[in-house]
Amino acid sequence: MNRRFNIGRMLMAVMLAFPALTAWTQQAPNGQASGAAQGPQLHEFSLTQAIDYAAKNSVMVRNALLDLQIQQQSNRATTSQALPQITGNLGLTDNVKIPTTLIPGEFIGQPAGTFVPLQFGTQYNANAGITLKQVLFDGQVFVGLQARQASLDFYQKKQEVTEQMLRANIEKVYYQLLISKSQIAQIDANITNQQELLHNSTEMFKNGFAEQLDVDRSNVQLANLQTEKIQLELNISNGYLGLKVLMGMPVKDSLRLTDSLTYDMIRDATLSDDYKYADRRDFQLLQVNKKLNEYDISRYKKMYIPTANLTANYSQNQFSNKFDLTQKNSWFPSAYIGLNISVPIFDGFFKDANVKQAKLRLRQTENNIDSMKIRIDNDVKQAQLRFSAALATLDFQKKNMDLSDRVYAQTRKKYDQGLGSNTEITTALADQKTAQANYFNALYSAIVARVDYLNAIGKL
């Protein structure tokens, strides 16, 4: 396939990055989105609007936001451990057979060594009470409270990393579709020129100034251009489908792109070695992960410290041989307040193992941070090289395309005046098509290189 039609290759790379998108290839362009309650809508989006829409509707971003909300609820659960725990209890016991107790016979004047069976208690026992438990000191609970914000920051950064990946892919697809508009316009112009050439060749053949071979060549060239346009239109349709799925837009909706692509837009990124690791969201994510590892170590170390808990209870108990909870003088109160201090002495080195594991995980994260710095340096350097080469190639291919247009125009003029051959005009047309294809490929390569460079320095 001609390299100018690269939407399919680009979408394949996107789908490999986001496996969930493969489902869109099974849907027809006019298919109904499952579960949609409203009719098709028309969306006219700039690139910024498309990214904003994706931030609200993309499944990946929505799930990342849900992860953040899940962590918020987890933080509430952590906070609850430091708050009073109050429970109420109600109980009723029917002693169908009152327990029998043996007491020594000598207690009631019987011979020594004998036992007398007696039943103690009432048939019905009821109780109602309330219990308060309060953590006075627990190192693990307090560390958990300190780590709440870091946990939220972790999932917030994960969401930002997801949004950044989505933004990069949306920009590439969006600009590729803009380039495809220019390709369609160029092919239409080529088809118009070829139709005129076919008409002239046919007339010259009728008048004996050309051969049937010249007419056949013109027909072949026209058929190739029309086939090329059909294939490009198919790829564009697939590109719009892929962009909709990336954005989380129903496939049945219509999408129009309102931005335009200019040469200056591609060159608006200034190459520089002045970048910061902290600008990269994936680097920020590792930094937050390191902080969580440090909290983990602190949490396990706090297990060596004694814990203190306060317990208080108030209850009412009823004892009666009749089932009547409203009996007067049958309820008896009880209450207590307790303080429990738990002192760890020996646990078989369980806490020591946990502390060492946490320290090793911290070292892994620190290694990952060092590795990330090297990878960022490599990403930036490679992106700079690709972007510089892409811009140089674009400049060259732009001049080459302009030159091929002039060559074709001059050759066409000579041909129309009867001073040139059909072979010359066919060759000029083929050279023009090649130059156009190379220019559009260079244009897209420059866009991808620009996006990758901005992504590498954390400025996308």
Provide a concise account of the structure shown.
The protein is an alpha+beta fold. It has helices at 7-17, 47-57, 59-80, 139-146, 148-206, 212-247, 263-266, 281-301, 350-416, 422-456; strands spanning 42-45, 85-94, 100-104, 115-119, 124-137, 254-257, 307-320, 331-342.
Give the topology, please:
Elements: H1 7-17, E1 42-45, H2 47-57, H3 59-80, E2 85-94, E3 100-104, E4 115-119, E5 124-137, H4 139-146, H5 148-206, H6 212-247, E6 254-257, H7 263-266, H8 281-301, E7 307-320, E8 331-342, H9 350-416, H10 422-456
Helix pairs in contact: 1-5, 2-5, 3-5, 4-8, 5-6, 5-8, 5-10, 8-9, 9-10
**Principal-axis shape:** elongated
Query: How many angstroms separate the termini?
Result: 32 Å
Radius of gyration: 40 Å
Q: CATH superfamily assignment of the largest domain?
A: Outer membrane efflux proteins (OEP)
**Widest sheet: strand order?**
2-5-7-8
